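Weekly sync, protein design subgroup
Attendees: M.S., D.O., the rotation student, P.L. (late)

Item 1: inverse folding check
M.S. brought a backbone from last month's batch and wanted to see whether the design step gives back something sensible before we order anything. D.O. pointed out we never logged the input encoding, so this time it goes straight into the notes. Structure tokens as presented (296 positions):
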């Protein structure tokens, strides 16, 4: 299959959904709404919502009702990027090829824009007008899944460990904790949200969970490699920032060649976890390969 065409098609659907979820930049207070949209529509790949859609499709589900749920994942991801870029965290000047949110709107508005996106995700998830296709226990399970992945047991915990490890000679288990929580938790949750939406059976859910864990790890190993080898124009952000901040990465443990090999091996394991699925899971299989071969 043509994974680039698939990604383009699904990204268009996600972007249209996001446009309906977030207030207009003209709505008062305009500064925060403008900042939210500035970061949200800065050209992201929409990997997380697309993984949710692809997981549901792998189980034969129609995904039109999933789009608001998928959109909420991107709202949370974008909030995390705004906050990660802040001077108190990673202190980055560029994101997706243009100034970071705090560089454009100031720190206070950037913090509030991130807060707004995070809370809006849960407004969407709990809005019966938008979430018509899921109700009851399944919806509660989805909300809990996303909340846990976004919080101290997931993304927030990983970010704390990442900051506290800067300049330290951390061991491999600590690095893997950072990667599987800071980045991997929301990717895993995205796949599981699609599975919950599509009413996956126990074995299907376990297989998709395993896939999500492996893809999340492969994604971060690829990010570590791109931080050293990527093209700044293609990445849309500074290259070598991890090295400058004294962060331990997979290349600093294994070297570039071995890290590339490991990323491919992890992606291959992700594909193998889908052995019990038919051709409807091909987008997931191709996404695993795309994640380790991307240039941004």
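Designed sequence read out in the meeting:
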């Amino acid at each position: 299959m043509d994974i680039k065409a698939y990604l383009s098609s699904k990204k268009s659907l996600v972007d249209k959904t996001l446009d309906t979820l977030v207030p207009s930049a003209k709505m008062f207070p305009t500064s925060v709404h403008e900042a939210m949209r500035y970061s949200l529509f800065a050209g992201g790949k929409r990997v997380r919502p697309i993984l949710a859609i692809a997981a549901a499709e792998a189980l034969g589900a129609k995904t039109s009702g999933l789009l608001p749920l998928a959109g909420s994942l991107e709202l949370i991801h974008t909030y995390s990027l705004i906050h990660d870029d802040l001077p108190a965290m990673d202190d980055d000047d560029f994101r997706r090829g243009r100034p970071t949110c705090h560089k454009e709107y100031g720190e206070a508005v950037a913090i509030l824009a991130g807060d707004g996106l995070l809370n809006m995700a849960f407004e969407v998830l709990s809005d019966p007008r938008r979430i018509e296709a899921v109700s009851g226990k399944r919806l509660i399970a989805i909300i809990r899944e996303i909340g846990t992945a976004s919080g101290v047991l997931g993304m927030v915990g990983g970010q704390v460990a990442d900051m506290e490890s800067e300049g330290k000679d951390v061991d491999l288990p600590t690095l893997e904790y950072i990667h599987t929580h800071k980045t991997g938790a929301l990717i895993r949750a995205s796949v599981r949200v699609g599975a919950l939406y599509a009413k996956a059976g126990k074995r299907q859910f376990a297989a998709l969970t395993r896939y999500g864990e492996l893809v999340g790890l492969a994604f971060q190993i690829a990010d570590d490699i791109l931080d050293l080898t990527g093209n700044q124009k293609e990445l849309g952000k500074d290259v070598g920032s991890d090295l400058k901040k004294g962060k331990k990465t997979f290349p600093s443990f294994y070297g570039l060649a071995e890290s590339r090999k490991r990323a491919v091996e992890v992606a291959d394991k992700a594909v193998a976890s889908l052995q019990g699925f038919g051709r409807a899971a091909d987008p997931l299989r191709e996404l695993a390969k795309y994640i380790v071969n991307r240039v941004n």
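Discussion: The chain is about 70% helix and 0% strand. The chain has a mean pLDDT of 92.
Action: P.L. to compare against the previous round before Friday.
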